[in-house]
Amino acid sequence: MPGSTLGELFRVTNFGESHGPAIGCVIDGCTPGLALSEADIQPELDRRRPGTSRHVTQRNEADAVEILSGVYEGRTTGTPIALLIRNTDQRSKDYGNLLDTFRPGHADYTYWRKFGHRDPRGGGRSSARLTAPTVAAGAVAKKWLKERHGVSFAGWMSQLGEIAIPFVDEAEIPNNPFFAPNAAVVPQLEAYMDALRKAGDSCGARIEVRARGVPAGLGEPLYDRLDADIAYAMMGLNAVKGVEIGAGFGCVTQRGSEHGDELTPEGFASNHAGGVLGGISTGQDLVVSIAIKPTSSIRTPRRSVDRAGAPTTVETHGRHDPCVGIRATPIAEALLALVVMDHVLRQRAQNADVSLPVPPIPGG
Amino acid sequence: MPGSTLGELFRVTNFGESHGPAIGCVIDGCTPGLALSEADIQPELDRRRPGTSRHVTQRNEADAVEILSGVYEGRTTGTPIALLIRNTDQRSKDYGNLLDTFRPGHADYTYWRKFGHRDPRGGGRSSARLTAPTVAAGAVAKKWLKERHGVSFAGWMSQLGEIAIPFVDEAEIPNNPFFAPNAAVVPQLEAYMDALRKAGDSCGARIEVRARGVPAGLGEPLYDRLDADIAYAMMGLNAVKGVEIGAGFGCVTQRGSEHGDELTPEGFASNHAGGVLGGISTGQDLVVSIAIKPTSSIRTPRRSVDRAGAPTTVETHGRHDPCVGIRATPIAEALLALVVMDHVLRQRAQNADVSLPVPPIPGG
Amino acid sequence: MPGSTLGELFRVTNFGESHGPAIGCVIDGCTPGLALSEADIQPELDRRRPGTSRHVTQRNEADAVEILSGVYEGRTTGTPIALLIRNTDQRSKDYGNLLDTFRPGHADYTYWRKFGHRDPRGGGRSSARLTAPTVAAGAVAKKWLKERHGVSFAGWMSQLGEIAIPFVDEAEIPNNPFFAPNAAVVPQLEAYMDALRKAGDSCGARIEVRARGVPAGLGEPLYDRLDADIAYAMMGLNAVKGVEIGAGFGCVTQRGSEHGDELTPEGFASNHAGGVLGGISTGQDLVVSIAIKPTSSIRTPRRSVDRAGAPTTVETHGRHDPCVGIRATPIAEALLALVVMDHVLRQRAQNADVSLPVPPIPGG
Amino acid sequence: MPGSTLGELFRVTNFGESHGPAIGCVIDGCTPGLALSEADIQPELDRRRPGTSRHVTQRNEADAVEILSGVYEGRTTGTPIALLIRNTDQRSKDYGNLLDTFRPGHADYTYWRKFGHRDPRGGGRSSARLTAPTVAAGAVAKKWLKERHGVSFAGWMSQLGEIAIPFVDEAEIPNNPFFAPNAAVVPQLEAYMDALRKAGDSCGARIEVRARGVPAGLGEPLYDRLDADIAYAMMGLNAVKGVEIGAGFGCVTQRGSEHGDELTPEGFASNHAGGVLGGISTGQDLVVSIAIKPTSSIRTPRRSVDRAGAPTTVETHGRHDPCVGIRATPIAEALLALVVMDHVLRQRAQNADVSLPVPPIPGG
Question: Nearest residue of B to residue D10 by CA position?
């Protein structure tokens, strides 16, 4: 099965290349009756948009989304929703000197081995631009989940390069370009980024994303466990190299007496599980953490080869991010929303007849 | 879509509960003409089997696999291969005192909220026993990949609780119950485990798994990237809470000038990418690392509630692992093999006509 | 995607070959809480079973089904239900003289071109024996649909060779081996069959199957229309060469003024649509008709070639049906039940929030 | 799984409503390297286009297709191909008087019961307009199949209402608006249609479609048999109520000695099988026949009810086809091409290693 589709019941099929005519997606399976317009989607795209701060790629794409189908008189019809974003700012020439070589850390080499050709236009389909349709679809999922189930999503940066960012105040997240929940550390982050940009180098980042109010019971015992599908979605995001749920790799050194979250009448006593047990949601916060690798397009010269295998050097100019993680937060939120939405529909498909008492403990 | 199936073209559908009559799987889409018998599968199951050392659950399951279909005169027919493993040692009474409570860290609570009932028999479908069919299917994939493409798989433990296990000698892996690539550290690991068992507690582990000889070009640009599907498979393994590819979370503090693997005529200069770029295999080793949480069935009393939410205490007796990670290695290998197999078939479905020169550099 | 699976949410994966160790299926996605035991399935298998009359293949297969998983204390758990049927009567030698030739009308030639080998054992996977797991799975779907939604299924033969069978009395269907809703015609049918058997030839049949009480709203606008999925299931049944919904091919000569079913306060005035409009169920009876070709295993000699293309003659002996359509009725019912079940779950997945007044007209 | 997608490996996701902003599709899994431009697709859309004769709906839609992605420098990249068709001529007011009633034979009632709302704009998603994206996608499949495998597709009308159309000359098909392979009968067909239009009524039609040069071995034993998938695709076409393969319902009265196609060194002696045996292609022509019901939008008044169930009358004005079958031929060809394309990729995914001698007989 070709892999441009995410989800089983809330299915998002993504299309487009960075410098082609347009990018977009088709959402199939959206519930009908949801109030929806471009105004519900555009703000999420704007959060992600390039050019919003000096720390991210200076590319002037308005990323204006257009709804082509699936909405009538302001409400979803239940038929597929096609979302279109035209590409307007395509400075192909930035990549002109790369036509016959492979940029280290980029997908140039692998796309060539897979498809037999090289699309040098800004990364083509490998470009992070293709996260825009994901965010657009995520906006739809977020809206329905919020209205129908009271689920909310939040994401933030918890580490930039070596700088740990303590979680201080969620309200700070939208106030700085880093999505950092901490106003005090922002000047340090900015100085760090400026230094990197001058040096022509890049750094990685750690992003956390949380879903609150998720119903218990989402996810399949195996293989389509909720955390498995979350890992799939997150690891599928450009530049992600690691995914954790709850305590994540911290589990390795924990004891069972410490890790297992006890249940009390007041609720779960902790959340090392990150909201998932046995692959199924507990009703607690879903807590996900991802590792984003440093940008591969840097201005320091790097060794490479050409198609014949002869050695050469590659140096990137033009528009580049010293840290692609800066923009990842809204995308990670969107991905989490898409997975949760999909599993809400899957759960009610199979288990709508299950009749349970009110959860015996809060937040479960 | 119900989620008991892994893979798109080499599809494995898993069935069974820990104490039901039988467990097994159906493999659909296996290539025809592969020489196959139970003797090709049983050794992999034996690697995973309980009771092979004092450090793992003492349960006497022979895990004898039977091929019910899909093989004729010793070769696969291309029709579905059903693999059956009868359950023989089912000491249900070990769980008798847990009928109305929820063991912290286990899936009891979540299964109840999902399906509306509680199957107290040894974890039911949430039991790690259900990894046996996965390993059986993985054996088939491993065989074909080895014979047809020269791909090999290896896994090992890289950390047990706080004890880091340096990679010294791959040949040592089968010589100890930990799958540790290091003979010298084994006594320390054993002492550690004995202490834990006495204390009635448990610890986590870190497992690494590697695929070598993987062709370049496997994986889709998005969403079904090779690393996304690997993360899905690994996070779907019982007790896994984190997945890394290549440098993983180590990326966060790396620089782009350090992380991006340069290409030289002799091959890639490094492998921080872990064998995947842009979601597609480079031809280098696939390198995956997973975090396994400490066992939830421990003998120290833990707080919980009953179905009405009243407080209670839970204490597990009977057969338990102080570290489920001890047995995870062959399962992680199987999962990686299943994902690679699936993507080999997917790649040739779409791109069989692509004609490329020999890879310009070795291992790519 | 390998194709041994039917359904998206109530998924049935079929395995086995006619003369292999066993046949069976795995049902994934069954709703939990349904009372289920072998006793709910066996009667449906018995309706289909060979050896129940002189008009069908004399093969002594008890077709005893065993539930291997997915049921606990007499109720479905929501986890996969594996159903197993061991093959006991495998008279392979009946086919011994066919090893290197291709029987006209059989799948011998096509399996060889597809898989590169020939499984001469009673048709292998192409055998109608593989309809047994389908019937077993259909029994589960029928039960749930009946208990939960009041849906009932009925099938009958409407034509045998040239003999039209008028629908006279539904209660007669179980009283004769033809599933004919007409006692008076049975002697004629039996004489017809006896004559065919003596002549060593075979005839076709037309089977009708009806679902009553189906909720309106099942099916997707396109492409997974309810009638499309029904056609897929029916045409996928061995020996079926035609499928009709409602008026079927009779539509060609109808006028729109005659075909379109008018709506009145008492209900739909007719049902030329066969219960499906725009791919979606109306609430009326689903009416499906299928054409079954004459058996290809006949005792009159037929021309064929061997693998090298040299001419030869083929003559079948042993156990054969003069009309495979005799046994098709319970299978067609099962297939219709599986499609309806799947679409009930799909409909509630997406549209569970849709709130409508009671249908404005009866039977809609 | 929401059902707007056709195919497993050559996947076409269709979106749009008749009077929404645009319609289109996304093709995922297309092989790379295929020369492709709008000029390869537009002619197929033109064959289907309304307004090309007085016998079809007079709606001025240019149906100009635009390729939004998946093509670079004139060749497919292997990434998803999005095809867009803007709606330009949307005379909504034609349907204004139908807002609260349900047109007999249309999907109005069923869409309301399914989605909980009524989209009165020209049928919305139920409109035959949504066959345009299918035809566009089919053009891509046809091109690759022709270039890579020498497969060709042809379709024609074999019956209009009561008028049988003997197959006389394939070259005549493009010369008349009926796609009739027979020049002599055309005046009779035109007179028949003119009479129907004056009467405000409609008739059905029978369409045949053939694929030639199809490789043997396509299709799965069960359930995804080639003929099953063909039936699914065809029955999923608006207004289709019956599908036949080969002899179809004619099988019912055939004898096995007559129906089974013998094999000779010169090739198969007949093709009652229609090119499919045991669900797998034989290499012979695929022969499919479909029954198209008479148009439901007619000018004779018809009884209906409103949402409260009170009786009312419905009469349609504006643009209508006296026979929607007139335009079905290119759509049926497209659907057949899509199914064949999908199965070619599926076959090579699983069985690319199968090595067979040249087919022992021609056309096999």
Answer: B350
Burial, B341: exposed, middle or buried (Cβ in 10 Å; 0-12, 13-18, 19+)? buried
Q: Classify domain B5-351 at the CATH class level.
A: alpha beta
Most C CBs within 10 A among B5, B8, B15, hence the mutation to make, goes to: B15
Q: Which residues contact D93 (CB under 8 A, 6 or more apart)?
A: none
Q: What residue type is assigned to position B211 of the chain?
A: A
Domain-by-domain residue ranges, chain B?
Answer: 5-351
> Nearest C-alpha of chain A: how many angstroms from D162?
37
Largest Cα–Cα separation, chain D = 69
Two structure tokens written together for A252: 């390795």
Residue in chain B nearest A276 by alpha carbon: B110
CB contact under 8 A, D348 and B348: yes
CB nearest to B351's CB, from D32, D351, D354? D32
Euclidean distance between CA atoms C246 and B272, whole angstroms: 62
- For residue D78, which residues of chain B lie inside 8 Å, CB to CB? 350-351
Digit-by-digit pLDDT tens for chain B (364 residues) are: 679 999 999 999 999 998 899 999 999 999 999 999 999 999 999 999 855 566 665 556 788 999 999 999 999 999 999 999 999 866 555 555 556 788 888 888 898 889 988 777 667 888 889 999 999 999 999 999 999 999 999 999 999 999 999 999 999 999 999 999 999 999 999 999 999 999 989 999 999 999 999 999 999 998 999 999 999 999 999 999 999 999 999 999 999 989 999 999 999 999 999 999 999 999 999 999 999 999 877 888 899 998 888 999 988 776 667 998 999 999 999 999 999 999 999 999 999 988 877 777 776 4
Q: Is the ipTM of this complex over 0.85?
A: yes
**In angstroms, rounded to a whole number, what is the distance separating the alpha carbons of residues D138 and D43?**
12
Which chain A residues are Cβ-neighbours of D21 within 8 angstroms?
A: 66-69
* Prediction pTM value: 0.95
Closest residue in chain A to residue D19, using alpha carbons only? A69
Which residues make beta-bridge pairs with A302?
A314
| C-beta atoms of C110 and D282 within 8 A | yes
Chain C CB contacts of B10 below 8 Å: 2
- Tokens describing residue A3: 């892999």
Query: Among D123, D118, D117, D122, which residue's Cα sits nearest to residue D93?
Result: D122
Reduced to 3 states, what is the DSSP secondary structure of residue D25?
Answer: strand
The list of chain C residues with pLDDT below 50 reads 364
* Interface mutation target, options B140, B218, B350, B354, chain D, most CBs of D under 10 Å: B350
H helix or E strand, kind and range, residue D335: helix D328-351
Please list every residue in chain B whose beta carbon sits closer than 8 Å to the beta carbon of residue C17: 69-70, 72, 77, 79
Q: DSSP for A206-233?
A: EEEEEEESPPTT-S-SSSS-HHHHHHHH
8 Å CB contact between C104 and D261? yes
* Strands annotated E in chain B: 5-6, 11-16, 22-28, 65-67, 71-72, 75-76, 81-86, 152-160, 163-164, 205-212, 240-245, 263-264, 267-268, 276-277, 280-281, 286-292, 302-305, 311-314
* 3-state secondary structure string across D32-57: CCCECCHHHHHHHHHHHCCCCCCCCC
Taking CB atoms and an 8 Å limit, are B11 and C32 in contact across chains? no
Closest-CA residue to C345 (of C44, C78, C3, C159): C78
Say how far apart CA C144 and CA C160 lie, in whole Å. 32
C173 φ, ψ (degrees, to nearest 5): -55, -45
**What type of residue is C292?**
I
In angstroms, the separation between the Cα of residue D1 and the nearest Cα of chain B is: 6
Contact C20 B72 (CB under 8 A): yes
Disruptive mutation site among A277, A290, A300, A350 for chain B (greatest number of B CBs within 10 Å):
A277
Measured between beta carbons, the chain D residues lying within 8 angstroms of C332 are: none
